[in-house]
């Protein structure tokens, strides 16, 4: 039988545990273990990043999606979803506003929407990079071909976020329709890395059918793949999806996992997600104290914010970007950290 204290100490020193040990650490979670992990994780993040918190300006460019993920509010089958697309001009206006507010990373996120062809995106990325050469462009537009990823990279995209959602293939198949493939998701992640992007993956916490076994596999994957970023957030159900009656995940387990991930890879960029702030009013502060060092405020036009509802009751859909940033700055300060104007690349 393992001892939690010994596992935590070993994780902190060696940045690695076995699958069984990760599963034990999750199953035997206690408030004392969470406090110990958070304290060690915070120490590590301060060694690498000090008290800096990086901000990413999130621009939700489209809520059209060809896919039908069972947990997602903008899935293709959701006829109640009010669809929209931002034009390149609207996206550039978001960047202009964001730059003034101190953002030096723009994240263009959307469903898998064929409207955004490689040509359209390349032109848009080149334009953003020429107007704001000191900024990073992050894309989060789902699975595309290797050729597409290469073209977007050449056009100037720096980073790509593609959540793997779960490293367990059988589990993946319970969360996605048969038209989607775990193998392809993993292939995309490997290709993004080979092309030269800074790569982000991520998973939902307490999604349907998930146990400590699947979470342990996610942690082992993080340990081995060493993504530059990892976005994790509690599963939150959406009323117009097949998972509408499934219980949502919790803030405590998400923070516990954030701490473990920080100890696995001390240099990783780790967002304290909006989902965490949705499930708990102090969720983003708790995430930062557990080892996170990134926040992603919304730069999308207020008129479309509510329409990009991946899950129910998403916060920060009514405020202007400037209000959002001031609110977050206060929250970050009160939690003991400092929001900085910086591209916020990973420190190797
Ligand atoms: S999770 Fe992503 S790929 Fe799946 S339906 Fe939603 S937007 Fe589309």
Question: What would you say about this model in short?
Answer:
The chain is α/β, with parallel strands linked by helices and 348 residues long. The chain is 45% helix and 12% strand. The chain is built from 14 helices and 9 strands.
What does this structure look like?
- With 348 residues, the protein is an alpha/beta fold.
- It has a single domain (4-340), classed as Aldolase class I (TIM Barrel), CATH 3.20.20.
- Helix content is 45%, strand content 12%.
- The protein has 14 helices and nine strands.
- The chain has helices at 4-14, 19-27, 31-49, 88-101, 118-131, 146-155, 169-175, 182-195, 212-225, 251-264, 274-279, 283-289, 302-305, 321-334, and strands at residues 52-55, 57-62, 105-110, 136-140, 159-161, 198-205, 229-234, 294-295, 338-340.
- A six-stranded parallel β-sheet has the order 2-3-4-5-6-7. Strands 8-1-9 form a three-stranded parallel β-sheet, with helices on one face.
- Helix 1 (4-14) runs parallel beside helix 3, helix 2 packs across helix 9 and helix 3 packs across helix 10 (251-264).
- The longest helix is centred in the N-terminal third of the chain and has 19 residues, at 31-49.
- 47% of the residues are buried.
- The protein binds iron/sulfur cluster.
- Iron/sulfur cluster (SF4) binds at residues 65, 67, 69, 72, 74-75, 111-112, 142.
């Amino acid at each position: 039988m393992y001892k939690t204290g010994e596992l935590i100490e070993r994780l902190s020193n060696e940045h690695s545990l076995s699958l069984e040990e990760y599963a034990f650490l999750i199953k035997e979670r206690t408030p004392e273990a969470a406090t110990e992990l958070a304290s060690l994780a915070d120490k590590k993040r301060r060694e690498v990043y000090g008290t800096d918190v990086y901000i990413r300006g999130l621009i939700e460019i489209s809520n059209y999606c060809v896919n039908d993920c069972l947990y997602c509010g903008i899935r293709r089958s959701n006829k109640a979803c009010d669809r929209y697309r931002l034009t390149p001009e609207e996206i550039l206006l978001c960047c202009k506003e964001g730059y003034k507010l101190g953002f030096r990373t723009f994240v263009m996120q959307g469903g898998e929407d064929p409207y955004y062809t490689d040509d359209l995106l390349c032109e848009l990325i080149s334009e953003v990079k020429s107007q704001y050469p000191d900024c990073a462009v992050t894309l989060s537009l789902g699975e595309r071909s290797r050729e597409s990823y290469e073209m977007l990279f050449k056009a100037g995209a720096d980073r790509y976020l593609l959540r793997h959602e779960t490293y367990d293939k059988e589990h993946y198949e319970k969360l996605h329709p048969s038209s989607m493939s775990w193998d392809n998701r993993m292939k995309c992640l490997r290709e993004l890395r080979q092309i030269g992007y800074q790569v982000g993956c991520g998973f939902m916490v307490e999604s349907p059918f998930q146990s400590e076994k699947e979470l342990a596999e996610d942690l082992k994957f993080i340990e081995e793949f060493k993504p530059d970023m990892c976005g994790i957030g509690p599963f939150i159900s959406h009323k117009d999806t097949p998972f509408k009656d499934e219980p949502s995940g919790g803030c405590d387990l998400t923070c516990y996992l954030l701490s473990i991930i920080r100890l696995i890879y001390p240099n990783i960029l780790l967002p304290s997600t909006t989902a965490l702030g949705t499930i708990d009013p102090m969720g983003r502060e708790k995430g930062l104290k557990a080892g996170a060092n990134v926040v992603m405020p919304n730069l999308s036009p207020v008129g479309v914010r509510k329409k990009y509802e991946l899950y129910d009751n998403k916060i920060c859909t009514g405020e202007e970007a400037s209000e959002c940033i001031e609110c977050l700055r206060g929250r970050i300060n009160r939690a003991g950290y400092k929001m900085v104007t910086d591209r916020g690349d990973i420190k190797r």
